[in-house]
Specification:
This protein is α/β, with parallel strands linked by helices. It has one domain (about 5-75). It contains five helices and three strands. The protein has helices at about 10-15, 25-30, 40-45, 50-55, 70-75, and strands at about 5, 35-40, 60. Strands 1-2-3 form a three-stranded parallel β-sheet. The chain is globular, with a radius of gyration of 12 Å.
Length: about 80
């Protein structure tokens, strides 16, 4: 399992990193599987600085986006929601 925050989903990263948020522990439970947040989308949605300050990884393999192709080649099934 791999988790990537992409599109408007990147706005959730700073929210979920807040220890007071009720789903903070959920993020912690899958953190080892998180590839990061899309660097392009983080900039576009204005949360890049907050993500970087939290030392959360940004994913930028293909034109500042995560590479879905790489995941598929590695045998992962891509599910979006």
């Amino acid at each position: 399992m791999r988790v990537a925050f992409d599109g408007a989903g990147v706005k959730w990263v700073p929210v979920l990193l807040d220890e007071g948020h009720k789903y903070h522990r959920l993020l912690g439970s899958v953190r080892e599987h998180v590839d990061g947040a899309c660097a392009y989308c983080a900039r576009a949605y204005g949360v890049k600085d907050a993500i970087e300050e939290a030392d959360f990884p940004l994913s930028a393999e293909y034109r500042d986006h995560p590479s879905l192709r790489t995941l598929i080649v590695d045998g992962y099934e891509v599910v979006t929601f």
